[in-house]
Amino acid sequence: MKCPPFDYHRATSVADAVDALQAAGDEGKILAGGQSLVPVLALRLARPAVLVDVNRIPGLAGLERRDGVLHAGALVRHLALADQRQHPLAAEAARWIGHTAIRSRGTLAGSLAHADPAAELPAVLRACDGAVQVAGPSGTRRLRADELFVGALQSALADTEMITGVELPVPDAWGFAEFARRHGDFAVVSVAAARFGERVRIVVGGVAGVPHLVDAGDLATVDGDVSDDRVTLLAAAAADDVDPASDLHGSAGYRRALTEQMTLRALADLAGHLRPVREPA
Amino acid sequence: MKITVTVNGERHRLDVEPRRTLVDALRDDLGLTGTHVGCEHGVCGACTVLVDGEPVRACLMLAVQADGASVATVEGLAGDDGTLHPLQEAFSRCHGLQCGACTPGMLMTAVHLLDTDPDPGRETIRAEMSGNICRCTGYTGIVDAVAEAARRRVTSETS
Amino acid sequence: MAAADPAMTADHGPASGTPVRRKEDARLLTGRGRFVSDLALPRMRHVAFVRSPVAHGRITGVDTAEALEVEGVSAVFTGEHPAIGPVAMRAQSALPGYVETDQPPLARGKVRFAGEAVAAVVATDRYVAEDGAEAVVVDYEPLPPTVCAWAEPAHPVHDEAPDNLLLSRTFRAGDVDAALADAHVVVDRELTTNRHGGNPVECRAGVARYEAADRKLTFWSGTQVPWIVRTQLAELLDLPEGNIRVIAPDVGGGFGVKAVLYPEDVALCLMAMAMPGTALKWVEDRVEHLLAATHARDHRYVLRAGFAADGELLAVKADVWCNAGAYSVHPWTAGIEPLMAGGLLTGPYKLADYECTVRGVATNTSPSGPYRGVARPSTVFAMEALMDSGARALGMDPIALRRRNLILPADVPYRMPSRLVDDSGAYEACLDRAVATFDLHRWRGEQVRRRRDGGRPLGIGVGIYNELTGLGRAASAGPRMAFRTGHDACTVRINPDGAVTVFSGVTSQGQGLETTMAQVVADALGVDYGDVEVRIGDTDQSLWGFGAFSSRQAVIGGGAAHLAGEHVRGKALALAAALKEAPVEELDLRGGQVYMAGQAKPIISLAEVAKVAYLQSDRLPEGFEPGLEGTKFYDPIRGAFAAGAQIAALEFDPATGEIGILDWVCVEDAGRIVHPVIVDGQIAGSIAQGIGGAMYEHLVYDDAGNLSTGTLLDYLMPTAGEIPELRIGHVSTPAANPTGVRGVGEGGTLAPNAVVAGALADALGVEIDDLPVTPARVWELVHP
């Protein structure tokens, strides 16, 4: 299990990274935390010609809350995301990722670009209706979560683009629940719930190629009401709305049942966080 | 590619292929075979070392990425006179190891745990050590060892 | 369970029975272990194997030209290479009807499982070797694969066995049909157990170097069985056995998976012989381990049991299929699992009328081999499932039903229906202590409370087992191979300075055998534990040992160590007596000093005696040879049954299937205990592996014979987050062997399948027939 050969470019700036990716044609790959990429390389499931190491690009590890949105740099590590208090949903979700030795290296942008449908942070980005800032050869663009995730392990990013920053609107109430086989495993099913004003956005991970935004219709308008009855109805609606596949870790029916249960837990969690999160002074 | 890495306080200059993992560089280029390889895909934790103080899977980090970094491995834990680190001592007393294959990763994970949380309960220890697979002990001795090392450290600091 | 300070033994008390500091710890804790994976030799080259991506197929072409062009690649070997081609491994057994089949070191003509080694690339380092392996082009003409051992064969795996049946045997005692006809209730169960495997943290590893000038081969191997490997290699490589040195240094876990001579081992040695003077190193990676190291426990049991109205077990009739995989594992044969299953299915229960047909069936999957507990985690699950079903049918308490049928001390020696002789009878004692420690009454109360007040349903599961350990020459439960594994040797040498070096035939993969052997020798000889050094795992150092399997080493290797220690003690005392002109029967050796009865001060030190023996032959009395050492073999003739009982409380969430372990108690009879902390460590570790098998670990093949669980992202081993606090207790009934010990390495693995499945049935009233017990399975059972 040794990586195939590749060239290595340590990028000094975003522009430098984009140039290097462009020079590599479609044979370049960004190396950020490496926690998903290096196993793929070790298994020789990918063979990029060039790895563009973005870890030493200055200025990409910032966390700042402005106007109800957490602006996070691409290189914010999961440990830092878990430790910050400005976006509690992102912090909670980050704590569920792997183990400390994974969180110490893994990056927010790396997780989003990898677009694993069972991963925690893509679900959070979608639940918060967040967006990513992307730099590419023709300049920068902004991709909303709905646009970013295309399919399982597929994002809308071009081979020559990199995520430079992440916008995570801060919900005024939030909940997160996950069912995994073991401590630190990828979720079988995870649910991120975020309330903005009177609307609750529920996103389910692990049931589709992309984090699934539940279409709960009018039920999602809660207007402060997250009563047990409403929670039960929303959880049933979530279970109804997903169309999971069967695999080694569970049948479609089981994943649907977990969707309902995790939605119940996430919404109970949300109900417990009803006090609005204030901007730090 | 030429890199400079400081391992357990000693500076090394290495010329490595970009694809070489940090754990292979430690073991095969520096002869520091105390850090073990268990799965090479970041699951088992056997290769855990500290890079600039943070625990890292050395099988998921390229050696070139450690250029300029400071790496701590199991070989650096005991004193130069052979005095065991309190965690090593506790692992021995509590039978926190059998075959020794997972042990270096366990120790480095525990070193970081006690650095960040000097007095973890057993549940915290179990959660924080759950990124390291041991096939021999059933974990009882490992949890005992980390708990004992923590207890001794807290006791010695308050006495 | 804190180990004592080394100072504890400074009072020259016995080392056995005390938790002395392990000899192994100092190097293993400081990164100074000596594992095969760590070995670096001058001009060493590295090997990567090309492995078959198809489960079954004819090899129509192998093109190595491109691989040989890769810079740094020095050689590529295939099954047809002149160095490899003439050699075939053949696991032999004299069992009637056993079909012998060949296993090539590298596939020849066809491949029989996905992951089988087809070619090997030798290169300057492993990275380059893998580059070369990627460049080898192999063409396959696919054949239909057979994955399931109890399905119609698609196409024979081996031509010699058109029905894929490598072995079948029926165990028969009494008249099972008549007994079933007389039964008050008859219960039927059909069960399958999940394929899983050892997965030690250090995978397999080997370094081979051949010196053509003197035809000597050195093979450093992470093996549990260096002497068996040496004997087999001598035959396969056509070398005098004495010219082969097998060295198993520190080995990072074994659990049976490393008690096998693998085709990769043989290929590595053959390649080394083809490249004299060049050390070749192969370190298995995890993906290779999951694909191609032996698997285990892929079984099906069709069972019928009859009980009398009072709960007496009257009859068991069983049909058993064991998936042997693509090759009969070397040297244990495809009989290893089925024969153990049929021989020990009835476990700790008395039974007269028994009929059990077992089969070893070839399939296009990785070969099955020895794995901790060999077959019995499955058979204990099967037997306890019958007990639980019987209890439900009779309306009896499941524990009372078990008690009704246990082999009791008065029954011992008890001849099991398979004709194995059980010398234990400690089952009820283990069960009693387990039930008391667990506080069954309290947990039953909690169960009732939850049923009444709500809360997650709680179930109590129990598993009782016997563990045939330390098999002597007359107690073989396995296939009739060309060798009997009843004995080990030990040499005790007192050095000129009076310190002791022990050359033991045991091997260690974490069990702490250096420590245990040192304790036994220290006490038998009369020296301090700290003055004993133990050398193991090197066929050039110690005389003989069969190695680590069947929980045999503490019994057999320990017995040999004890006998050798006593023998040398006798020699030392005789020389001391002659030197001091004292009557030998009044002398005692303690703490390295010779004492005369009634005197507080020693009359001479062992060091002084040794000095005379080696360096001052002028002082040697008449009739004494120089030197001070001795070698003894030990064979217990029969085996030593160990007994155990586990009981646990688990809770289940019907909505998610989530399983929580609330309490887990194990009580074992390990006989006399040499090192209490090591023994508890063995038990805890084996329970953890048992829980892994019961709830997490599953090697799954798809219908095409591809392994679907090929990385540790899908093959789930339990971590500190899943294994509960374990409460371990002991009933210590000394066994009839020199040290009184019973083997302890495997017992813990035997019960968790039964315990978890039993708890599920107890909690939710659903019988689970197919392991593992996962949240998804629990949910499916509750929502049929």
From TrEMBL, chain A:
Q: Does the keyword Flavoprotein apply?
A: yes
Keyword flag Lipoprotein: no
Which PROSITE patterns would you find in this protein's record? Answer: FAD_PCMH
Q: Which residues cross the membrane?
A: none
State the taxonomy lineage. Bacteria, Bacillati, Actinomycetota, Actinomycetes, Pseudonocardiales
Gene3D superfamilies named among the record's database cross-references: 3.30.465.10, CO dehydrogenase flavoprotein, C-terminal domain, Uridine Diphospho-n-acetylenolpyruvylglucosamine Reductase, domain 2
What is the protein name given in its UniProt record?
Xanthine dehydrogenase family protein subunit M
What InterPro entries does its record include?
CO_DH_flav_C, CO_DH_flav_C_dom_sf, Diverse_Substr_Oxidored, FAD-bd_PCMH, FAD-bd_PCMH-like_sf, FAD-bd_PCMH_sub1, FAD-bd_PCMH_sub2, Mopterin_DH_FAD-bd
Q: What keywords sit in the KW lines?
A: FAD, Flavoprotein, Oxidoreductase
Where the record annotates domain FAD-binding PCMH-type, the positions are 1-173
Q: Which organism is it from?
A: Actinomycetospora straminea
Automatic annotation (TrEMBL), chain B:
Q: What are the record keywords, sorted?
A: 2Fe-2S, Iron, Iron-sulfur, Metal-binding, Oxidoreductase
Q: Which InterPro entries match?
A: 2Fe-2S-bd, 2Fe-2S-bd_dom_sf, 2Fe-2S_ferredoxin-like_sf, 2Fe-2S_ferredoxin-type, 2Fe2S_fd_BS, Beta-grasp_dom_sf, Diverse_Oxidoreductases
Instruction: Respond yes or no to whether keyword Transport is given for this record.
Output: no
This one is known as: (2Fe-2S)-binding protein
What range(s) does the 2Fe-2S ferredoxin-type domain occupy? Answer: 1-77
- UniProt key word Iron: yes
Which PROSITE patterns has this protein been placed in? 2FE2S_FER_1 (PS00197), 2FE2S_FER_2 (PS51085)
Q: Which organism is it from?
A: Actinomycetospora straminea
Q: Which Pfam families match?
A: Fer2 (PF00111), Fer2_2 (PF01799)
UniProtKB/TrEMBL annotation, chain C:
- The UniProt annotation puts the region (Disordered) at 1-23
- Please report the stretch or stretches of sequence annotated as the Aldehyde oxidase/xanthine dehydrogenase a/b hammerhead domain: 30-144
Q: Which organism is it from?
A: Actinomycetospora straminea
UniProt keywords, alphabetically: Molybdenum, Oxidoreductase
InterPro entries assigned to the protein according to its UniProt record, in alphabetical order: Ald_Oxase/Xan_DH_a/b, Ald_Oxase/Xan_DH_a/b_sf, Ald_Oxase/xanthine_DH-like, AldOxase/xan_DH_MoCoBD1, AldOxase/xan_DH_MoCoBD2, AldOxase/xan_DH_Mopterin-bd_sf
Question: Under what name is this protein listed?
Answer: Xanthine dehydrogenase family protein molybdopterin-binding subunit
Supply the Gene3D superfamilies for this chain: Aldehyde oxidase/xanthine dehydrogenase, a/b hammerhead, Aldehyde oxidase/xanthine dehydrogenase, molybdopterin binding domain
